[in-house]
Amino acid sequence: MQTSTRTSQRQSQSANADADSLLKVENLHWQADARAILEHISFAIAPGSFVGLIGPNGAGKSSLLRCLYRVNRPTQGRIQLNGQDIWHSSAREIACQIAVVLQETTGNFGLRLRDVVRMGLTPHKRAFEFDSAADLALVDDAIDQVGLTALAKQPFDQLSGGEKQRALIARAIVQRPKLLLMDEPTNHLDVRYQIQVLELAKHLGTTVLSSIHDLNLASAFCDQLLLLNQGELVEQGSPDQVLTEATLANVFGVCSSIDRHPDHGHPRITYHYGYRSGDHGNNSSGVSDD
Ligand SMILES: Nc1ncnc2c1ncn2[C@@H]1O[C@H](COP(=O)(O)OP(=O)(O)OP(=O)(O)O)[C@@H](O)[C@H]1O
């Protein structure tokens, strides 16, 4: 595994922002079956920012997110939310502060959409405490915000992929988290729903960390990007800093040209297919048409 020098430079830059960070991860390591999956992961996320977690298949994105929502216990290092170590907090305390949207959610056993959204209230409730009229109004308002009022009584498992993701965002709205973690929330969605789901998450006004495979979507929506490769954080910074032709060649093994998107001004990636080594300025990807 290699650690980029640019990463350490950016890590020291981001250290200046640490005091104001909502989430701070320090030297996180995680291993499974005696194999190192994540190593030397350090970053901080400022409140209100929309951060994309990118990287090739198997880089460790889901493993890192699972550490952050307390499924994978790090073998080394510290994760702090608002200055509090998440592994020294109760599961309920964390559930009040962190909402999670995963890529495929099944097994809701006949629950209707409204019941699934209502589950966002649970972490804030005591045992046997009933939902108040204000709680139920919050649920209906969240369903309305994601445009699913007409489907509120529909069994969750019968919804389309895009409708399920929007329902889970409605659940997150109800949960009122400080941090929303999303693992490939746009997987299997058509392009309209990919944009819609990310727009909904962006306009929640909460801090978001989401893994995203589509680098152009990551560029369009994210304030900051974390680039994982082989279990290490090799780049972190703005889309301009992270999405370079050289990085895409080195980490993803693709040849690309990058210009500015005419609407949002962030990097816009055009991929080149079937080129021969030497056809383009940067050919370190080793991609060829042989
Ligand atoms: N519980 C586990 N036990 C053993 N190996 C694991 C476990 N969880 C993840 N891994 C391994 O860790 C590596 C990283 O997996 P992870 O799912 O985190 O990658 P990813 O970046 O999310 O990949 P993708 O983009 O393909 O979803 C993979 O090689 C995977 O097989």
From TrEMBL:
Protein name, as recorded: ABC transporter ATP-binding protein
Classification via SUPFAM superfamilies: P-loop containing nucleoside triphosphate hydrolases
Originating organism: Corallincola platygyrae
Xref: InterPro entries: AAA+_ATPase, ABC_transporter-like_ATP-bd, ABC_transporter-like_CS, P-loop_NTPase
Keyword terms of this UniProt record: ATP-binding, Nucleotide-binding
The keyword Cytoplasm belongs to this UniProt entry's keyword annotation: no
CDD domains (UniProt xref): ABC_Iron-Siderophores_B12_Hemin (cd03214)
Gene3D superfamilies: P-loop containing nucleotide triphosphate hydrolases (3.40.50.300)
GO molecular function: ATP binding
Ranges in a coiled coil: none
ABC transporter domain ranges (all copies): 23-255
